[in-house]
Write a structure and sequence with these properties.
Blueprint: H1 2-38, E1 43-48, E2 51-56, H2 63-70, E3 74-78, E4 84-87, H3 89-95, H4 99-102, H5 116-125, E5 131-139, E6 142-155, E7 158-167, H6 169-183, E8 188-192, E9 198-201, H7 203-209, H8 213-216, H9 221-224, H10 231-242, E10 247-254, E11 260-271, E12 277-286, H11 288-309, E13 314-318, E14 324-327, H12 329-335, H13 339-345, H14 347-350, H15 359-370, E15 372-380, E16 386-397, E17 403-411, H16 413-465, H17 471-502, E18 508-511, H18 512-522, H19 524-530, E19 533-536, E20 541-544, H20 546-562, E21 571-578, E22 583-590, H21 622-632, E23 637-642, E24 646-654
Parallel strand pairs: 2-6, 19-21
Antiparallel strand pairs: 1-2, 3-4, 3-7, 5-6, 6-7, 8-9, 8-12, 10-11, 11-12, 13-14, 13-17, 15-16, 16-17, 18-20, 21-22, 22-24, 23-24
Helix pairs in contact: 16-17, 17-21, 18-20, 20-21
Amino acid sequence: MTSDLERLTEEVERQARAVEELRARNRELEETLDAIGSGEVDAIVVSKEQRRQVYTLEGADHPYRVLVENIREGALTLAETGMILYANTAFARMRRQPLSAILGTSLRDQILPRDRDRFDALLQASQSRSARDELRICSGTASFPVLISMTPMEVDGGPKLSVVVTDRKEDADRLRLLARMLDSVADAVIATDPPGRIIYWNEAAERMYGWQAAEAMGQSRNELVVADLSHADADRMAEQIGCGETWSGEYRVHHRDGHLFPVRATEAPVYDEDGELVAVIGVSHDITRRKGAEEALAESEERYRSLVENSIDAVLLTAPDGSILAANAEASRIFGMTGEEMIRGGRDAIMDPSDPDPRLAAALEERNRTGRFQGELTFRRKDGTVFPGEVASAVFRDMSGAVRTTMIIRDVTDRKEAEASRQQYAERLRASNEELQRFAYVASHDLQEPLRSIVSFSQLLNRRYKGRLDEDADEYIEFIVDGGRRMQALIQDLLQVSRVEIGARPLEPTDAAGVVAGALRLIEAPIREAGEVVTVDPLPRVMADAAQLEQVFTNLIGNAIKYHRADVPPRVHVSARQTGPSWWEFAVADNGIGIEAEYFDRIFEMFRRLHTKDEYEGTGIGLAIVKKIVERHGGRVWVESALGEGSTFFFTLLAA
């Protein structure tokens, strides 16, 4: 009983809904009739499968025509044969003809002859579906590009074609402007159709790849320029472009002359208004220089990394707060800990925080003020032992702009020990030299008295008893006298050598011209006896011990007199020239017998003689004294000479 009641209720509700639907349809029909009656519509469109049936209404005001007549595109109705049944005024303006001359003609006749085959294909395709193509329409003696869209329709029960003609001249002008703009960019811009054929090639592409646009158009871009795009990159590019995304990457390309070069490329898809892929546009930038710079940078980094890793010094990368960021292998060896331990411990791991080096604060202050520090600090190893380290530290900014510091540390324990040892040795040597100098002075001085007695009594024997003894005795006495005299000369020279240090006076501003004049007065007699001519240029003031400098000039001018050539009038010339802001170079030149080059160094050695005592008198110590005096003054002495042509002795002194 209950189920019958439910079924009855459902049937009543269904009938009620059906009645409501009929009422709604009636209201729609009434509204449509009212619209038809008022002229608000003049056609009814009924969809049928792939076509739309259009029923026009007689006597309506046809307001839709007002809309069609005021749009910018050309609007036409064609018969299936292509005859123009209707055209709006916009199309007449495009053709520059009155409507009366257009209606009843074939649209095919308006098409540029070379595009008519494509028009026929478009007309055929539009019989069953919407179709479009870009063609050129004649306008007087010229033509212009248009986009023709055709849609099949049924009007008043017959098949017709609705046609919209869009003037592409403005688009073409915009494209030409765009092309000029793209030609002005520095990067290569290449557009390809979906199969990959080149449809645009700007001037930068011509310069970059060496192919003219006319040569590149229509060719496969991959075959023409791409050299080694990996399969993975190619697949990724296709996937991203297929998804409507932009792809970027680097690969090598071909130049027309065959050489390869790297580019950074960006590829982007281009879609039409229906969402179909119509082109891919790519922008390529030659990155040869960047790659070269990157390779050079990588090579430089590798070189410096190798230098750091193979350095005999500890190299640390640190932060201003004392953190250690990196350490080389030598740092681990010197400090006896791993790089990780130094990084964890920071500055406190390598310097004793409980007993800080008092020089550290001054070093950090100098580095903060000047950007660098170089000096010596005390460091601590892992085992607690300390050692002296020579440090060079500098501040810089890394690529992210963060402030970083470098520390190069050399363990100078061995050097310090060697320096201490050398210092001790130098002190012992200095004391020994002083003792030897005192001994030489005392010995030379004390030998004078007994030697004078020997010489005096030998001479007395020679005078009183010569001829009273036999000839051998006379000869022996002469040997004793001669040897005593030579011994006296040697002792006198030794005294002069010892006095270079023992009797030396402080260096002070000295007039070199006055010193030379004094030296010439001391040896005036030998100069006059030899007929020597001595000339002196203007001489400067120098820092010197006047007495010792006089001895230098006396010895050098005296040697020039002694070693003159017998057949040539002797000449000596003294001059000086400044060789820098602090030094003067003196020269004593003669025209004497000269010296062979192999003896240039030997003649300054103690007691070194190039001639026998029978040829030239002397002990061979004069030039050694000159060398010792000049070196005591901080200068150096040398000779330039040619055998038989004279000699020039040079020495340097500090300017006053």
